[in-house]
Amino acid sequence: MQADAPAAPSGGRSDDRVVTSIDAAPMTHLHPVPDLADRIYNPGLPRANITCDAEHPAGTYSPPAAMTVMQQHIAFWDRDNDGMLWPSDTYVGFRKLGFNVFLSAIAVPIIHGTFSWWTQNSWLPDPAFRIRMGNIHRGKHGSDSETYDTEGRFVPQKFEELFSKYDKGNKGGLSFQDVQDMVRGNRNIMDPTGWIAGWLEWNVSYYMAAKDTPRGRLLLKDDVRRIIDGTIFYAVAREVEAGRLRMRQLQGGMEPRKPVAATPAGAAARKID
């Protein structure tokens, strides 16, 4: 005769079979996980070349066949589409995003000094400190959100957890304090490199993309997804260039005119070394 199943501990659950929080561990109540079974097909299955979420289960763009999501994240900086990021590419990219000369210059040694060696095809470092896009998955650090897996794919479940855990009040985005709470919550033991990297990445993202809303200044959920797949960088660069164009026209006594929209980002496939 089959024995009865043991009673489930008291606490929150996503259905009658899966317990997701228990009273004995208050952190499981404080940081709930989402039940996505009816919203995204197999949300724990990593997507190789597209991002998606509960609101866009099929994604929002035509995915490039030749780039993982993590490669798409940095493709904006590959100006000549050769699969190699030079230090000059990084500097120019940050300037296009509206960062000043000082911050753009500081970003170069931090990024290339950290990631260049790990992405090479041999144990010998690259004297030019280039980053190989094809090996960027080796640059995944600890104390992160785990939205990228170790091969550079996108994990919808982990993306949604960013907001179920840290978007307090269901605002549709992360406030500055939410971002700090998330960075602290993601910390792994004895991982100072990951702590610093996570803090820098998320605070730079907030500085670049947060928007004023009726509920305060927020890093919106859709913009976080676009940061992860890199499409937001092209949009921000177009906005920055349009602002600079208007400023030049006003300074020259000309009436501003609307610049021609650029081709959406991430649509073209390319060969990655």
Automatic annotation (TrEMBL):
GO terms for molecular function: calcium ion binding; monooxygenase activity. PROSITE patterns: EF_HAND_2. It comes from the Eukaryota. Residues 154-189 form the EF-hand domain. Residues 253-273 are annotated as: Disordered. Residues 261-273 have a biased composition (Low complexity). Belongs to the caleosin family. PANTHER family: BINDING PROTEIN CALEOSIN, PUTATIVE (AFU_ORTHOLOGUE AFUA_5G13750)-RELATED (PTHR31495:SF0), PEROXYGENASE 3-RELATED (PTHR31495). This is Caleosin CLO3-2 isoform B. It comes from Micractinium conductrix.
